[in-house]
Amino acid sequence: MITGLEPLGRDALGEEDLTALVRTITGDPAAVAGAVRVEPVDYPIGTPSTESLHRVFGTTLDGADWSCFVKKLQSVRHSPIIEFVPVEYRQSFIDYMPWQLEIAVHRSGVGDLMPPGLRLAHAYRIDVYDDDRATLWMENVVQEWGPWPIDRFERAAYLLGRLSARRQPHLVEPLLDRVVSSTPGTALRYYAEGRVMKAALPALTTPETWRHPLLSAAVCHLGDHALRDDLLALGERVPAVLDALEALPQCYQHGDASPQNLLVPHDSPNEFVAIDWGFDCPQAVGFDLGQLLIGLAHAGELSPEALPAVHRVILRGFQEGLKADGLQVTEEEVLYGYLGSLLIRAAFTALPLEMFGTHDAPLELFEQRVRLTRALVDLVSPVV
């Protein structure tokens, strides 16, 4: 084991493997690894299939710097979250969650389908273990600093539209070989029946939720006393919306196309590096726009009041991308696919109810999320 890689545990490479990795990264067939250090990534892990994130930095004996991003994947049976899943649902949850999806992305031909300006992160090494764990050694993308300008949202939407058109079900195979990956809408329906119908909507229905000091204070300060009724009215539409989404034209899409998963390299600010794919099944055309719209707002990096302007440009950009690669659908179909999916995916879960038991939860967060939820409700209500 090479000194400096100990924080990676069993993924710490021996001299031969590290040398091969460094030569792959640097492109120098004679490179020899010198000093190495590992840094944990300071980023909240939002998915139970991710065990840990690290960056590895090193220097060759010739003085060349190199780096890579190390992502450890796991079956959700290893995740602490499994303890919060009711016993009767645990096995189905474990069986359903596709923890191997990112491995499948890098082993598939999806990178060859991407339009110019959108690409995968380079995968240098993939280690898969017998205990339903794996490790990806990937390109460490140094990102462009600063907020996204409005034209970047539009370009991202355009490229996602082109990718969707190229990944229609009759043109490609699913990334994972399983029945649910070829069944339209199954991932969103699974999410709706669990996260939305069994958790979020019952909580939103309960009067005690709205009497919690933080949420009550946020609602009162903003004067949005109709929010609860508006959310519950939308909740009644969920089954019909799911049916309508599955009747629309379908595409395999990125599945989690938030700006946080479309990295903009500092040395190439006109391209996007797509990471952290999700929802491996055909979804209604326009599905990817929901996460593109809400990702930065959910993280508190974009004002909820900016969403209508972003909405307009990404809808236009996505439609132009579809047309550029020959998929002819109506604006109404894209709009419903986008906003119907956004309703299911985000409208009922934007309020941070999981922080009710946190002593240091700030009122500002609850106010921001109330504003975000209102923006989503106002956006989707006229369409769904």
By secondary-structure content and strand pairing, the structural class works out as alpha+beta
**pLDDT under 50 segments (min length 5)?**
none
What would the principal axes of the Cα set say about the shape?
A: globular
Number of helices: 14
Question: How are strands sequenced across the largest beta sheet?
Answer: 1-2-3-6-5
Write a structural description.
The protein has 384 residues and is of the alpha+beta class. The chain has 14 helices and 10 strands. The strands form 3 sheets. A 5-stranded antiparallel sheet has the order 1-2-3-6-5. Strands 4-9-8 form a 3-stranded mixed sheet, covered by helices on one side.
Supply the key terms.
384 residues, 10 strands, globular
List the helices and strands and how they pair.
Elements: H1 15-26, E1 33-40, E2 50-60, E3 65-74, H2 87-96, H3 101-107, H4 110-113, E4 118-120, E5 123-129, E6 133-138, H5 150-166, H6 186-205, H7 207-211, H8 213-222, H9 227-235, H10 238-246, E7 250-251, E8 262-263, E9 272-274, E10 283-284, H11 288-298, H12 307-324, H13 331-347, H14 363-380
Parallel strand pairs: 4-9
Antiparallel strand pairs: 1-2, 2-3, 3-6, 5-6, 7-10, 8-9
Helix pairs in contact: 5-11, 5-12, 6-9, 8-14, 9-14, 10-13, 11-12, 11-13, 13-14
